[in-house]
Amino acid sequence: MLYSPFLPEIGSGAIRRLKCTSRLEDLQSADVIIEAIVESEDVKKKLFSDLDRISKGSAILASNTSSISITRLASATGRPNKVIGMHFMNPPPIMKLVEIVRGADTSDETFMTIKALAERFGKEVICSEDYPGFIVNRILMPMINEAFFTLYTGVATKEDIDSGMKLGTNHPMGPLELADFIGLDVCLSIMKVLYVGLGDNKYWPCPLLVQYVDAGRLGRKRGIGVYTYDKLVEAKLSSRI
Ligand SMILES: NC(=O)c1ccc[n+]([C@@H]2O[C@H](COP(=O)([O-])OP(=O)(O)OC[C@H]3O[C@@H](n4cnc5c(N)ncnc54)[C@H](O)[C@@H]3O)[C@@H](O)[C@H]2O)c1
């Protein structure tokens, strides 16, 4: 059963009020905008610049980025005090954590507003300074990358690597299975941010991870990554989430 802090009627009421649009202009009156597009600094900066022009001056612009500098995203706007990282763990309906990231100029008011909003969503909040990968991916992604090196250098099969970490360290998913769940392209983008931003060879992305992404093996969303997936089963699983 999925965790929900809300009564079912509140949840269904909220879903009825949801509006979908592909026009940025429809965000004109929003108080808070949470961006969750592709993990690319250039693409996000362009969107933040457009959102800065379109949204009202008092609106907070939050990013769900897993690793990219909030300070640099904020620099694409004229309101760096109202730009903040609001990193939901995947899948958001199940995972309790939101990692809040303050850029160099994020104001206390913006931080308090976003923290209160996350808590209203029923989330637990942690706060990170604005350094590559923040807290969670600074620690998680090198482990996933090392799992790829373990596979790449023939130390063990993918199944044994995942079983080892599940049964040996009590992780709910093995690192390769988790990488497929996150998306191998997203994992590679985060490793590149760590490698460039922290300037240490220990963050060098594993060539096997790079090759899988080059081949379009992006994980569960593509039906193939480290493992292959049955499209029908995946569709049923995601509709339950
Ligand atoms: N995958 C995860 O487990 C996970 C977890 C937490 C946070 N995030 C973050 O959430 C964001 C999205 O992750 P994802 O896994 O959905 O990535 P994804 O690459 O699978 O999907 C990104 C989506 O953004 C769309 N997009 C690209 N450019 C756009 C634009 N200019 N305007 C509107 N839409 C655009 C793409 O068409 C695509 O549908 C990233 O910043 C990622 O780091 C991902």
UniProtKB/TrEMBL annotation:
Cited SUPFAM superfamilies: 6-phosphogluconate dehydrogenase C-terminal domain-like (SSF48179), NAD(P)-binding Rossmann-fold domains (SSF51735)
Domain 3-hydroxyacyl-CoA dehydrogenase NAD binding: 14-130
Keywords, comma-separated and alphabetical: Oxidoreductase
Site, Important for catalytic activity: residue positions: H87
The reaction(s) this protein catalyses: a (3S)-3-hydroxyacyl-CoA = a (2E)-enoyl-CoA + H2O; a 4-saturated-(3S)-3-hydroxyacyl-CoA = a (3E)-enoyl-CoA + H2O
Domain 3-hydroxyacyl-CoA dehydrogenase C-terminal: 133-229
PROSITE patterns reported in the protein's UniProt record: 3HCDH
GO molecular function, one term: NAD+ binding
InterPro entries: 3-OHacyl-CoA_DH, 3-OHacyl-CoA_DH_CS, 3-OHacyl-CoA_DH_NAD-bd, 3HC_DH_C, 6-PGluconate_DH-like_C_sf, 6PGD_dom2, NAD(P)-bd_dom_sf
Protein family membership: In the central section; belongs to the 3-hydroxyacyl-CoA dehydrogenase family.
Protein name as it appears in the record: Fatty acid oxidation complex subunit alpha
Species of the source: Thalictrum thalictroides
